[in-house]
Design a protein that fits this description.
This protein is of the alpha+beta class and 122 residues long. It has one domain: PH-domain like, CATH 2.30.29. The protein has two helices and eight strands, in the order E-E-E-H-E-E-E-E-H-E. An eight-stranded mixed β-sheet has the order 4-5-6-7-3-2-1-8, with helices on one face. The model has no long low-confidence stretch (mean pLDDT 94).
Length: 122
């Protein structure tokens, strides 16, 4: 399967989560102090991304609960982030020159995340 989640080692004995298409990293998480927290991040993404709304913050749209947010960066490009119910960002994408690509990245995670393989490379 070309889609997969990876648990990766980070500095200071911490762990991160990546969602990939083939070898391209589409989104990545913050660093977690435990592998269990990284696994919980993946579980939450699998459970909550398929039904999460996409909120375009560049149009001043607003939402609460689990959601994708489309954000414009300081350099004028766009990225998406998946936000938990408590307002914490769980993962974010690279920046794109075209807002539609940020939205496509969010849609791909929502569609393909639930069936993606999970690989532990930590």
């Amino acid at each position: 399967m070309p889609y997969k989640f990876k648990i990766v080692a980070r500095k200071n004995d911490q762990f991160g989560v990546q969602f990939l298409y083939n070898s391209e990293i589409m989104v990545w998480s913050e660093s977690y102090k435990s592998k269990a927290s990284a696994k919980n991040c993946i579980k939450s993404l699998i459970q909550n991304t398929p039904t999460a709304p996409v909120v375009d913050l560049t149009k001043e749209e607003d939402s609460s609960g689990y959601r994708f947010e489309i954000v414009q960066s300081k350099n004028g490009q766009f990225y998406n982030r998946f936000v938990a119910r408590n307002g914490e960002t769980m993962v974010r994408s690279e920046t794109y020159t075209d807002k539609r690509n940020a939205k496509k990245c969010a849609a791909s995670l929502a569609k393909n995340g639930p069936s993606a393989d999970i690989i532990d490379e930590s």
